[in-house]
Specification:
The protein is of the alpha+beta class. It has eleven helices and 17 strands. The protein has helices at about 20-40, 60-65, 70-75, 85-100, 150-160, 165-185, 240-260, 265-275, 360, 375-380, 390-405, and strands at about 45-50, 55-60, 105-115, 120-130, 135-145, 200-205, 215-225, 225-235, 285-295, 300-305, 310-315, 320-325, 340-345, 350-355, 365, 370, 410-415. The strands form four sheets. The protein has a five-stranded antiparallel sheet, sandwiched between helices. A hairpin with a 5-residue loop joins strand 4 (about 120-130) and strand 5 (about 135-145). Helix 4 packs across helix 8, helix 6 crosses helix 7 and helix 7 crosses helix 8. The longest helix has 22 residues, at about 165-185. About 35% of the residues are buried.
C-alpha cells in the first residue's frame, strides 16, 4: 500500500494548491462564482446608489423582500422612494444629513414599502464610498430584516457596551448629532409668522438655557383662501435628540395639514409618524395644540384640537378670562389609537387667545419655590384683560424674565386676537 502524506483525494475533486495550473484556475472560478452568489443571495439586502440616491445596483435578496424586479428599480427609483411616508421624512431630516456629515451611519430603524403595499421593518447601515482623491463616489447600503427588531437592538446594545471601539463610535455620533442640533435649532421656529387680515398675531420663544437645545415650537401659515393653520407644542427631552424630533414634528404637521387640514386628522397623522419612527425604548412623544382659523365677518373662527397640551386661555373683551379645554387630548406618540377631539370658538372684537407651553406654568417662584400653575396664569391674565395679542405677549415675556433661574424649561407663547373696534380699549 502506498502512503499519501497529503491525505486521500476523491477522483474528480482536485485539491487546490496541488501545483496544477488547471486546478488553480478551476478553484479561482469557483471563488468568483461563490462571491457573486453570496452578494445576490446574502441573508441581508445590499444596494448601491448614486449620491443623489438613484439605485445603481441591488441584490436578489432585497428584490425578493420587496417584490420588485431589477428593471423596475435600477436607474429608475431612488432609495428614499422605497421608504414609507414617515421614513421619507426621517430620511430627509435626519438620516441623509448625518450620512453626509460623517460618511457613515449604522443601525437606523426604517420601514420599506413593498410592491404589494406591505411594510417591512429594517435596520439600515449606509457608507459613502470615496475615490483615491477622497471625493465621494457612491453610497453603499446594507439592509437587515428587523421584524424581530427588539431582540436585535438588545444584541446591538450589549455589543456596543462590550466593545470599546463601538463605544467610541457612539460618542463620536453623539458629538456630531449635537453639532447638527445647533443647525437644526435655527429651523425649529419660523423666521416670521404669516399675516392674517383682521387678526393680530404675536409669538415668543424663551429658552431656559442658552447652551442646550430645547423642544418647544410653534408656527402659523396659510393653507387656503381665507384659512390659516397654526400650532404650538413641546417635545420630550432636550439636546440634539429633541431638536431632531422637533424638526420631524414641525415638518409632519405642515405636511399633514396639506393632506387633510382637519385638526383631529392632523394629530392622528403626527401620532402615526412618531410611533413609526421612534420604536426604541427611549421616549419620543410630544404635546401639541393645533388649530384652524377662518376670518368670518370680522371675527376669527377657530377650531382647536389638543394632544396632551395645556388648555388655551381666552381673554374676552369684557375682561373675563377662561380656559378652553379640548376633549380627549391624549399625548401624541404614545398610544396607537389616541383620542383627540375639537372645540370651536369665535374671537370677536377685543378677544385674544393665548397658547403656551408648560415651561410657563411649571416655573418655580417665591421663596418656597412653588410652581407657577394654571391658576396663577389665569389670575395674571385676568388683571390684564382686555388686551391685544402683541401687548399680551409682551407682558408674558416680562413675566418669564422675572422668573430668573426658576424657569427650568423652555417656554413658547403664541397669541391671536381680533383688534377692538371703535370704543374698544384693549392695550
Amino acid at each position: 500500500m502506498t502512503g499519501d502524506p497529503g491525505g486521500a483525494q476523491c477522483p474528480g475533486h482536485p485539491r487546490p494548491g496541488d501545483g496544477s495550473g488547471q486546478d488553480r484556475a478551476t478553484f479561482s472560478a469557483l471563488l468568483e462564482d461563490n462571491a457573486e452568489d453570496l452578494y445576490e443571495h446574502a441573508p441581508c439586502g445590499y444596494l448601491s446608489t448614486l449620491l443623489d440616491g438613484q439605485i445603481a445596483k441591488i441584490n436578489t435578496t432585497l428584490l425578493d423582500w420587496l417584490g420588485y424586479s431589477r428593471a423596475e428599480l435600477v436607474g429608475r427609483r431612488r432609495f428614499a422612494d422605497l421608504l414609507t411616508i414617515g421614513g421619507k421624512l426621517y430620511h430627509e431630516t435626519h438620516f441623509a444629513p448625518l450620512l453626509r456629515m460623517q460618511g457613515e451611519i449604522g443601525g437606523v430603524a426604517l420601514e420599506l414599502a413593498a410592491a404589494d403595499g406591505a411594510r417591512l421593518p429594517v435596520l439600515v447601515t449606509s457608507t459613502i464610498k470615496t475615490g483615491a482623491d477622497g471625493e465621494p463616489l457612491l453610497i453603499r447600503t446594507t439592509v437587515f430584516d428587523a421584524r424581530d427588531r427588539r431582540t436585535y437592538e438588545r444584541e446591538l446594545l450589549r455589543a456596543r457596551q462590550e466593545a470599546d471601539a463601538a463605544r467610541e463610535r457612539a460618542d463620536r455620533e453623539r458629538d456630531q448629532v449635537q453639532r447638527l442640533a445647533t443647525t437644526l435649532q435655527r429651523s425649529l421656529l419660523p423666521p416670521r409668522l404669516a399675516e392674517v387680515p383682521g387678526v393680530e398675531v404675536a409669538a415668543h420663544y424663551h429658552p431656559a438655557s442658552v447652551s442646550e437645545v430645547g423642544g418647544d415650537f410653534y408656527d402659523l401659515f396659510p393653507i387656503a383662501d381665507g384659512q390659516w393653520a397654526f400650532f404650538l407644542g413641546d417635545v420630550c427631552g432636550k439636546g440634539s435628540d429633541a431638536a431632531a424630533l422637533t424638526s420631524l414634528t414641525r415638518y409632519t404637521l405642515r405636511s399633514a395639514t396639506v393632506y387633510d387640514p382637519d385638526p383631529v386628522a392632523v394629530l392622528h397623522n403626527l401620532n402615526s409618524v412618531l410611533l413609526q419612527e421612534y420604536r426604541s425604548e427611549l421616549p419620543a412623544f410630544c404635546t401639541v395644540i393645533f388649530g384652524l382659523l377662518t376670518v368670518d365677518e370680522g371675527d376669527a373662527v377657530i377650531t382647536l384640537a389638543s394632544g396632551g397640551h395645556p388648555p388655551a386661555l381666552l381673554l374676552h373683551s369684557n375682561g373675563r378670562c377662561a380656559y378652553r379645554p379640548t376633549p380627549g387630548g391624549q399625548l401624541v406618540g404614545v398610544l396607537h389609537d389616541p383620542v383627540f377631539g375639537t372645540t370651536t370658538l369665535r374671537l370677536g372684537s377685543g378677544d385674544t387667545l393665548l397658547l403656551y407651553t408648560d415651561g410657563l406654568t411649571e416655573a418655580r417662584t417665591g421663596t418656597a419655590r412653588s410652581r407657577y400653575d394654571e391658576a396663577a396664569l389665569l389670575e395674571f391674565t385676568s388683571a390684564l384683560a382686555p388686551i391685544g395679542a402683541p401687548a399680551l405677549v409682551g407682558e408674558v415675556v416680562d413675566l418669564l424674565a422675572r422668573f430668573g433661574d426658576g424657569l427650568e424649561d423652555d417656554a413658547a407663547i403664541l397669541a391671536l386676537g381680533v383688534p377692538a373696534g371703535p370704543g374698544g380699549a384693549p392695550r
